[in-house]
Every structure is written in C-alpha cells, then in structure tokens.
Amino acid sequence: MKTRAARFRALHTAAEPLVLTNTWDAASARIVAATGAPAIATTSAGVAWTLGAADGDAVDRDAALEHLARIVRAVPSDLPVTADIETGFGDTPDDVAATIRGVLAAGAVGINIEDTVRHPAVGLRDVKEQQERISAARGAADDAGVELYINARVDTYFRGAPEETVARAEAYLAAGASGIFVPGVADPDPIAALAKAIAAPLNVLAQPSSPPVADLARLGVARVSLGSWVAEAAYAVVRRAAEEVRSTGTYTALTGAIAYDDLNRLMPSRG
C-alpha cells in the first residue's frame, strides 16, 4: 500500500500529466490496465449506474466499497487505484473517516472527494465544513500509515462560483488535500491561471472538445480525468444497438467491438 501510494503521488506532474481513463467495473478496469495505464481511477457516476442507482450520493457506502474492492482485485497488485467517493458517503467527518478506512481496506490509495451538497438542495458546502471532512480523511489515512492521495474536487465552475475556486483550493490544501480537481473549467486561459495560482497538482476533467493532453501539460495541468465520459460512451453503444435492431433490423452499431476471445482473455478463469 505504501509503495503504491508513493508511486501514485509521484505520477502527478505537469511535465507528464497523469491521464486517467476512469473505470466503473472489474471488466473496464482490466481493459484499461491492459493498455499500460499507470493507475486506475473509478468514476462515481459509472459505478452508481452499474449498481442501478443515480449518481449523486445515492449509492450505499457498503455497496460502493464492495464494488471498489472488486475493481482493485481485478487489476495487477502493483497498480495504484484511486476511488471517487463522491462527498464521502456520510453526513459527518466521522462518516468520512469510516469511508476512508473502507477505501484503504479495499486496497485503494487515492480518493476524489467533492464539495457539492445535494441534500436538501444542490449547492457548495461551507468551506469550514469541507475542511473538517478532508481533515478527517487525512487523519484516518495517517492512522493507517498510508499517504492517501486526497484529490479535493472544487465544484465552483459547476455551481456558478468560479471566483471562489482558488480560495477553496487553498483551504482544502491546508486541511490535508494532496491535489485539487476543478471539473467544468475548459478554456486555456482560466486553466493556466488556476495552475499558476494553486500550489498543488491541478486535475481537470476532459471532454470531447478539451485541448489535447500535450496542450494541457503546457498550461500546467498535472492530471487529466475522463470522468464519466467513457461509461457514457459505452452505454451509448447499448442504446444505438437496441434502437437500430428494433428500427431497421441491422447491426452496424456493433462495429468496432472488442473480439470475444480478446476480451475473454483479460478475465480470470475459474478453472
């Protein structure tokens, strides 16, 4: 765990950004690992959908941690795994600490934790409250002797408050965060400004129109996540295939599929 945690932390550099093709189950994790990825990350949305729930704190903590453990077991034992734990699976800092203990028990060495509050209404959590939650996460990891990578997600661009981004980032870093994740920022100028202003690795969320990784590196980005986009694209194939076969009786949506034997070889045999 300590070795994987140290390796994962060292991957965060603007010289060569860590690019994460976020996974949502054991099969997607194995596929990504087989491409030579240096680390595996989960997408909370993809995990929630796999478990039959909506994204946004609708998944039971135990179910999420059991699913995470299955993903960790599916990839090589030396490959770092980081988990998207949404807001921490609980209302209090103690709940967050309990979640971190479960994350570590599952074998992951990193987390994403966001500052959006969805209940009773969607908004940004009070900064001091979020600091307490991050501090609780750091304390639980320290107690376990693991230098957990805490990627503090700042949802200011999603919630119409981009002017708060740097101040929140600084507060979260002071509370024990390792890096800062700012989804929703897409234009080069604000990305470069954030990378310069935030004294920690900056993570951005890629989308089809985002600058290439090389350009993001020049802007100072240290980590690029694909988030739920890959899961969305995979489920789009399901819908296209279903709609096509019902409407025209044809099967062109299946073009480009991974061959059965190739995919099957990635999965363990029960013997």
Q: Can you put this structure into words, describing what you see?
A:
Helix content is 45%, strand content 12%. By secondary structure, the protein is α/β, with parallel strands linked by helices. It has a single domain (2-228), classed as TIM Barrel. The chain has an 8-stranded parallel β-sheet with strand order 1-10-9-8-7-4-3-2. A two-stranded antiparallel sheet has the order 5-6. It is globular, with a radius of gyration of 19 Å.
Main features:
271 residues, alpha/beta, TIM Barrel, two-stranded antiparallel sheet, 11 helices, globular
Can you tell me the overall shape? globular
**Beta-sheet strand percentage?**
5-15%
- Overall pLDDT metric: 96
- Tell me the helix content: 40-55%
Biggest sheet strand order reads: 1-10-9-8-7-4-3-2
- Quickly count the domains: 1
The helix/strand order is HEHEHHEHEEEHEHEHEHEHH
Summing up helix and strand content along with how strands pair, one would put the structural category as: alpha/beta
Give a brief description.
By secondary structure, the chain is an alpha/beta fold.
Layout of strands and helices, then pairs:
Elements: H1 2-10, E1 18-20, H2 26-34, E2 40-41, H3 44-50, H4 61-74, E3 81-84, H5 93-106, E4 110-114, E5 116-117, E6 123-124, H6 127-144, E7 149-153, H7 165-174, E8 179-181, H8 188-197, E9 202-205, H9 213-219, E10 223-225, H10 229-247, H11 260-265
Helix pairs in contact: 2-4, 4-5, 5-6, 6-7
